[in-house]
Amino acid sequence: MKNTFYFLFVSALMLSFACSNKKSEQSNENTSATDPMTLYSEIDRTSAPNTISEKEKSKGWQLLFDGATDKGWHGYNQNGVPECWAVEDGTLTMKSTGGQEEQDLVTDKEYKRFALSLEYKLTKGANSGVLFQIKEDPKYKYAYETGPEFQVIDHENWPDRLEGWQINGCNYAMYAPMETPYKTLGEWNQLMLVVKGNDVTQILNGVVTVKYTKYSDEWTKLRNSGKWSDFPDYGKFDEGHISLQNHGTKVWYRNIMIKNL
User: Cβ-count burial of 184 within 10 angstroms (0-12 exposed, 13-18 middle, 19+ buried)?
Assistant: First the structure.
């Protein structure tokens, strides 16, 4: 009887250990699958613009822009697409000059945990940005009142001196980029934004420029001590629209894809 009990006890321990290892392996696989640089490597840079490869489809990527229409997008707090935006030669771009931030373009859908990949090209002195976790409400005039921004700017030709938290690749008005791997003016830059819960990673041309954790002590201090102290709902939402900012200068966007994590 004792031998039988011992055998059953050992068998149960071995089964429990095997299940634990299996869960650990699955957890490691899931973590690897959502690693920002792994996600960046999933993008096929050889495909034609605004198309999605079988490899990308198999990994869960979806197009947010088809290269021919503005389907899936609308103006911030608007029903349609503002006239200052256009589909031009397979890109989403701005037609007008002068400040137009109240006419940012936003996705129809909201996103929470995701990886966003796109390419952008700047004109001299251009300024734009990719914002996320945006809420639409008449009480907000601008998308940036709620949404963090991956800065897109030709800071080298900007007329004024800029701080580190204002230059290309930064998390605007929060974190300066750790690296500045932007390409020569007129070339296409590859941008990726990865949002996993409170962990945010910004990648530019294959290099991580910013990493931070929302609601951390550091993030909270920066949020409360700078520009955003005047905007109480900045960074408040964990799910929201994604936006391409219209700062009244010409920037081209293409190959816009998203993957839910």
Answer: exposed
Write out the E strands in 54-198: 62-63, 73-75, 85-88, 91-94, 105-107, 114-122, 127-134, 149-153, 189-196
If we measure between CA atoms, which residue out of 223, 242, 139 comes closest to residue 175?
223
In a domain, 20, yes or no: no
Q: What is the CATH number of the domain that holds 59?
A: 2.60.120.560
Phi and psi at residue 184, to the nearest 5°:
-60, 140
Name residue 10's amino acid. V
> Within the chain, which residues score under 50 in pLDDT?
5-10, 13, 15, 17-19, 22-27
Instruction: Supply the pTM of this predicted model.
Output: 0.88
What's the total number of domains in the chain? Answer: 1
Across the strands, what pairs with 191? Answer: 118, 204
Q: Is 131 helix (H, G, I), strand (E, B) or coil?
A: strand
Q: What span, in angstroms and rounded, lies between the C-alpha atoms of 142 and 194?
A: 23
Report the pLDDT value the prediction gives residue 112, as an integer from 0 to 100.
98
Predicted confidence at residue 94, as pLDDT, reads 92
**116 within some domain:** yes
Residue 184 pLDDT: 92
For 8, which DSSP code? H
Exposure class string for 212-225: b at 16+ Cβ within 10 A, else e: bebeeeebeebbee
Closest to 38 measured CA to CA, from 28, 52, 53: 28
